[in-house]
Each structure stands twice: as structure tokens, then as C-alpha cells.
TrEMBL record:
This is Peptide/nickel transport system substrate-binding protein/oligopeptide transport system substrate-binding protein. It is found in: Periplasm. The lineage of its organism: Bacteria, Pseudomonadati, Pseudomonadota, Alphaproteobacteria, Hyphomicrobiales. CDD domains: PBP2_NikA_DppA_OppA_like. InterPro entries: Peptide/Ni-bd, SBP_5, SBP_5_CS, SBP_5_dom.
Length: 539
């Protein structure tokens, strides 16, 4: 898939596409209400800010973007755009909008809304974590540097035309226009919300938020004016929050819940898998995922590379995969094995307690030190954090575990100097799109090391940033393999600086009721996590 979209994006073209297709049409039924559960409340539904795996799916369904994906796949297709054209040099993208698409406030979506929405995502005042994705658009540095509030590289000659001019070729640009940060929002609704747009969302997606009772539930209803016929398939979904995963699973088995959003607790996985209804309940799929511990390079003693390298040797990753009942493999680099650019020959840091102690002594900490390890509070993450804590204690590092709600961990990570270490489990990193660059910019690049960002190691290597830009500028299809190799070397070179301890590459396991229909791929969707647009009720 990667090579196909790359090839198509580097030649001049003007393509008209059908609306988002529905697969297995004969099996799909329209209508029905479903219930989904999560332990933690939703932090925000603002597409310029929300960036965790729970709200990502909901944001995808509340808003539309110029580009999207065929459900359950990483295959790009136009969405708000009816046609698009890319210049031969890869620097100009021209999009023609579909006619008659409306926001849920009744106003038609026009080209200026696209421009406003992306400029809002880039604006430093928004404090969104996705600004760096748009770095190739001409004028990006002026906006992020505070010299301008508008992007020179976005032109709207009329209400149905958007023209992007890039300062350099970007092999990922069509994917960028499909991520949540490129969601189109109406300026008047953002301003009317007075800083609370994340609780009062207005978009042009498949669903509309009808109710949000904080700490209890969110209710989404189908948008009757959505521009794709017969999408979505369900009429309503209710997200109940505050549900412990084990309780949610029991309710699902009773028929009270349709999707247990936090998955199956590892302690129950084997039992459920071997039960008579196991095959109808479990969806088990591979994903582009890496779970890791961030080491805050701006907090002592993690500003010392030898300390970071030592801790990479201190963690028994195989024990953590056992806690996950074998639903993961040990990781040794930021990229997951299925991602283009993954270096199979790279071995990383071997588990070696004595070498870790020796390196800590060399760094000036022969007796270790005290620190804090943040984790989410949903099982099994606290248990994994305790296993990490025990491994650290074996090399003299005393780590206090702070197991908090996901939103609190995200906030701590995005505040400079607050979180020395974070175990990312339960959030981790699942690719926004199937390209190695996505594992760099937001979580390891300088652009992500900002207030509210997701680079929780606060790692910034200007040389690697320049190499990353050079890699993404390799949009010539003949250089696709070379580009992957360049990215692979960037990630293995990062490991010399050790801002992370990569721990696991985990499979995603979802529990759904037998009445839920659709391919398993839409419950572990590679670009949405759960694809609320495509799921349906069989009876």
C-alpha cells in the first residue's frame, strides 16, 4: 500500500473517487444502538488537541477531512475532496471540494474552513500536539515562530478550491490531510465555544455529539445529512465511562455492553479465549504499535545519556510480555516490526543487570537514585509499572509509581519538567498512518517537545530533525526503498541517545458482543482504532 500511494502522489493527476465504500454489502444492516465502555472519561473532542487512542476514534467520526481511508485498511481515498491534483514536482496540491457538504450547524463547508482549521492546528496558541505534521506547508515556520497567523502555502481562490504550496516535497502529505489534526471545523463554532470547543464539537462527520455527562457517558447520534449514503450504519452509540474493564467484560457477556473499549484484561484472556463464545467475542489483530518508557532528557539524572542507556539494560522485557499473556513481543527500537524501515538486524540493548549497574556507576550514580514513574491506572498497566519498578530497584533506582487516569498522565508528559519517566502502556503509540515518519515527528522530533506535545522524553536532536526532513522530501517513487532505509537508520541512531526504553510491540485485542457485525479489521482499524462509521448490528 505504501508504494502505491507514494507512486500516485508524485505525478500530476486529477482523480475523481466514489464516496467511502462499504465492504460486504450484503451482510450490512442499517440501524441499531450500541453501548461502548471505557474506564476513563474522554479528555477532549477537539481535533486540534485530542491525541489519545480513545478519543481518536470519536474525533474521526465527528469531523471530515480532505482525505480518508477505506474502512479497516490504510488505503487513502478522498473524502471532503472530490478530486485532487498533484504537480509533477510534488510541491503543489490542488483539491476540489464536494458540493453541498454541511456542518452540523447547517452551514455549508467551504475552502476557507479548510485553511482556518489547519492554521488553527498549527497556531502555537492552540497548544495542539499535531502542528509538526504540517511542517512542509510554505509559511509554517512563520506561524509557529509567531511572525504570522496565516499559512502562506494555503490558498482558497474560491469556495470549492484549496491549493497547498509546499516548501519541500513531502512523501506523507496526503496522509497528513487524513489525520485528525486536518479535520475541518467552522470558525464561528470554535469562537462561540469560548475555549470549550472540545466539549461542544461541530463538524461534518458521520455522527453528532448529543450528550456529554462528564464522568458518566457520551451519546453520539448519526448525522442525517452526512454526504455518504448509508454511512454510518448504526443510529446511535453511547460511551459509558468509569467502567472497570473486568466489570465491562462481564456486562458484555450478559448482553448489556457491545464493545468493551479497554479490551480484555490479561488475567481473563485465556479463559475468554477458551470459552464457547470466545470466537464470537474476541477480535485479535496486529497493529503498528510500540509501547515504551520515556526518559525525560530535561530532568536530572536523565539528562545523562549513560543513565538512559543503563536503564535500557535494566528492564526484563520478556517478563512484561508474559504479563500480557504473550499478546506482545519485546521491542528494541521505536519502529514496530510491521512498519517499513524497521531494522531486523538491530539488536538494541540486551537485558543485563550487571552492565546496567556498571554504567550507572560510570555515570556517577553507583548507589542509584530516586525518581518517579507515571502510568495509567487501567489493568494491566499498574502491574507492568510495578514490574518495571522491581527491575529498576535491582540496579539501585528507586522509582515511585504514580498510576493515574490517562488524561492526567498525558498532561504530565506534555508539561516540561514534570514527568521523569512514563510507561506509555494503555496509550503507547499506534501509527496514525503507515509510514515511519509518524513514529518520529510527534513523539521523538523537536516539534513534539512542546507544551501539550507527545514527545514526553523532551528529546530534540536538530541533526536528526534535518535528516527526517530530508527523508520525507524523497518523494520520487524510485527512491522508496532508499527512503525506508534512511528512516530505519534514524531510529537506530536515536537508540544511541536512548531517550526511550522500547518495551513491547503489542497486538490489539477487542471484546465485542456476538450481535456486532463487520470484519474484524474495523474493530482494530489501522487508522481509527475502532471504526464507528463501518461497524453495524446484525440483529
Amino acid at each position: 500500500m505504501f508504494k502505491r500511494w507514494l507512486r500516485n502522489s508524485t505525478i500530476a493527476m486529477a482523480l475523481a473517487f466514489m464516496p467511502l465504500p462499504a465492504f460486504a454489502q450484503d451482510a450490512i444492516k442499517q440501524g441499531g444502538d450500541i453501548v461502548i465502555t471505557y474506564k476513563d472519561d474522554i479528555a477532549t473532542l477537539d481535533p486540534a488537541i485530542g491525541y489519545d487512542w480513545v478519543n481518536w476514534s470519536m474525533i474521526k467520526s465527528l469531523y471530515s477531512r480532505l482525505m480518508d481511508y477505506t474502512p479497516g485498511t490504510p488505503d487513502l481515498i478522498p473524502s471532503l475532496a472530490e478530486t485532487y491534483e498533484v504537480s509533477p514536482d510534488g510541491l503543489t496540491y490542488t483539491f476540489k471540494l464536494r458540493k453541498g457538504v454541511k456542518f452540523t450547524n447547517g452551514r455549508e463547508v467551504v475552502a476557507s474552513d479548510v485553511k482556518y482549521s489547519i492554521e488553527r492546528a498549527v497556531d502555537p496558541k492552540t497548544q495542539g500536539p499535531g502542528a509538526g505534521f504540517f511542517g512542509a506547508i510554505k509559511g509554517f515556520d512563520a506561524v509557529t515562530g509567531g511572525a504570522s497567523t496565516t499559512l502562506e502555502g494555503i490558498a482558497t481562490p474560491d469556495d470549492s478550491t484549496v491549493i497547498f504550496t509546499l516548501s519541500r516535497p513531502d512523501a506523507t502529505f496526503l496522509h497528513v490531510l487524513a489525520i485528525n489534526f486536518a479535520s475541518v471545523v467552522p470558525k464561528e463554532a470554535v469562537e462561540a465555544a469560548a475555549g470549550d470547543f472540545g466539549k461542544k464539537p461541530v463538524g461534518s462527520g458521520t455522527f453528532v455529539l448529543k450528550e456529554w455527562t462528564v464522568g458518566q457517558r457520551l451519546v453520539f447520534e448519526r448525522n442525517p445529512d452526512y454526504f455518504v449514503k448509508d454511512m454510518p450504519h448504526i443510529d446511535k452509540f453511547t460511551v459509558e465511562v468509569g467502567q472497570e474493564p473486568l466489570v465491562a467484560l462481564l456486562r458484555l457477556q450478559k448482553g448489556e455492553v457491545d464493545i468493551a473499549g479497554d479490551g480484555i484484561p490479561p488475567a481473563k484472556f485465556v479463559e475468554i479465549k477458551n470459552s464457547p463464545e470466545g470466537a464470537d467475542i474476541i477480535v485479535d489483530g496486529a497493529q503498528l504499535h510500540t509501547g515504551y518508557i520515556t526518559l525525560n532528557t530535561r530532568v536530572k539524572p536523565f539528562d545523562n545519556v549513560k543513565v538512559r542507556q543503563a536503564l535500557n539494560m535494566a528492564i526484563n522485557k520478556e517478563r512484561i510480555t508474559r504479563i500480557l499473556n504473550g499478546r506482545a513481543t519485546a521491542a528494541n527500537q521505536p519502529l514496530p516490526p510491521l512498519m517499513p524501515g524497521y531494522d531486523k538486524s538491530f539488536t538494541g540493548y540486551a537485558f543485563d543487570v550487571e552492565k546496567a549497574k556498571a554504567l550507572l556507576a560510570e555515570a556517577g550514580f553507583p548507589d542509584g537514585f530516586e525518581t518517579i514513574l507515571y502510568s495509567t491506572n487501567t489493568d494491566p498497566q499498574p502491574r507492568i509499572a510495578q514490574a518495571i519498578q522491581q527491575d529498576l530497584a535491582a540496579v539501585g533506582v528507586k522509582a515511585e509509581v504514580r498510576a493515574l487516569a490517562q488524561a492526567n498522565v498525558i498532561a504530565a508528559g506534555g508539561t516540561e519538567g514534570e514527568a521523569p519517566m512514563i510507561w506509555s502502556g494503555g496509550m503507547a503509540w499506534i501509527a496514525d498512518f503507515p509510514d515511519p515518519s509518524n513514529f518520529y515527528g510527534p513523539i521523538l522530533g523537536c516539534a513534539g517537545a512542546v507544551q501539550g506535545g507527545w514527545n514526553w522524553s523532551w528529546y530534540c536532536n536538530k541533526d536528526l530533525d534535518a535528516r527526517a526532513i530530508a527523508a520525507d522530501s524523497m518523494s520520487d517513487p524510485a527512491k522508496a526503498t532508499e527512503r525506508q532505509a534512511v528512516w530505519g537508520k534514524i531510529f537506530t541512531d536515536i537508540m544511541a541517545d536512548a531517550p526511550w526504553i522500547p518495551l513491547t510491540n503489542e497486538r490489539r485485542v477487542v471484546a465485542k458482543s456476538p450481535r456486532m457485525g463487520g470484519s474484524g479489521d474495523i474493530y482494530v482499524d489501522p487508522t481509527r482504532v475502532i471504526n464507528y462509521d463501518a461497524i453495524f448490528v446484525k440483529d
